Amino acid sequence: MTEPMLEAAQTLEEVREVLGDCKRCPLHVARGKLVFGYGDPDADLMFVGEGPGRAEDAQGLPFVGPAGKVLDEMLAGIGMDRSQVYIANVVKCRPPGNRDPLPLEIETCNPFLAAQIRIIKPRIVCELGRIAAGVMMGWPLQMTKVHGTRVDGPGYFNVPVFHPAAALRTPSTMELLRQDFANLESYLAEGEEPPRPPEPEPEQLGLF
Ligand code: URA
Questions:
Q1: What's the Cα-to-Cα distance from 51 to each of 4, 7, 87, rounded to whole Å?
Q2: Where does the pLDDT of residue 86 fall: very low under 50, low under 70, confident under 90, or very high at 90 and above?
Q3: Residue 1: Cβ-neighbour burial (10 angstroms; 0-12, 13-18, 19+)
Q4: Mean pLDDT, rounded, of the chain
Q5: Do the Cβ atoms of 65 and 57 come closer than 8 Å?
Q6: Best CATH choice for the domain 7-190 from the list 3.40.470.10, 3.90.226.10, 3.20.20.140, 3.30.10.20
Q7: Among 31, 57, 157, 191, which one is least packed by beta carbons within 10 Å?
Q8: Above 50 in pLDDT, residue 39?
Q9: At what angle do helices 12-19 and 103-120 cross, to 10 degrees?
Q10: pTM
Q11: Rounded to the nearest whole angstrom, what is the distance from the C-alpha of residue 206 to the centroid of ligand 1?
Q12: Is the pLDDT of residue 165 over 50?
């Protein structure tokens, strides 16, 4: 279902307002706080995670739990902090027990993520984990093959990386994540212009 108010939104505040006290999918039933996103609305670099976990659901902010500590460390490693980027998730409410979000939940929330990207206009969208990478780049997708690479997207580059929570579980994944962030730093420094977004449909002039 398209939402004309969402399509008309020109600021993140307006997108948040349209989202409101969202009950569009079943995730609202068990959520604590809705986690809209955090950071610089003009960021060149935007992160997209999977969905809020326990700490995020309690605080209403993305990546503030253990995985968030890893993200902060990775950012510090390339001389950045979270005030210089924007962080959002594929779904804005916590899936119970941290299960993967379901297709209906992803599809329902997707227009809001798309609106955030449209307004922020990042040069690079860094997908944190396979769910975010699949949603943004399409399935099937092999993280072992694509992580740390730069892939053309509509108006930005995608750079999928392993999820920080996976890095916490497996030291070798942590090392790969560190290398992927080094790539991210190079992509940012190169300053190459991302692919142009698709042209909007020409206005119907109503002449015929
Ligand atoms: N994991 C995610 O994917 N997103 C968060 O916001 C926190 C943990």
A1: 25, 23, 11
A2: very high
A3: exposed
A4: 95
A5: no
A6: 3.40.470.10
A7: 191
A8: yes
A9: 160
A10: 0.95
A11: 46
A12: yes
Q: Are 160 and 126 in contact (CB under 8 A)?
A: yes
- 190: CA distance to ligand 1 center in Å? 28
Choose which residue among 91, 128, 177 to substitute to test ligand 1 binding: the one with the highest number of ligand atoms within 8 A of its C-beta.
128
Quick check: 208 pLDDT over 50? no
pLDDT in the model for residue 37: 98
Look-up: residue for tokens 């349209």? 18
The tokens for 176 are 């790969």
Closest C-alpha to ligand 1, atom 7: 63
What tokens does 107 get? Answer: 């599809």
Q: Give, as one character, the DSSP assignment of residue 161.
A: B
Query: Is 194's pLDDT higher than 80?
Result: yes
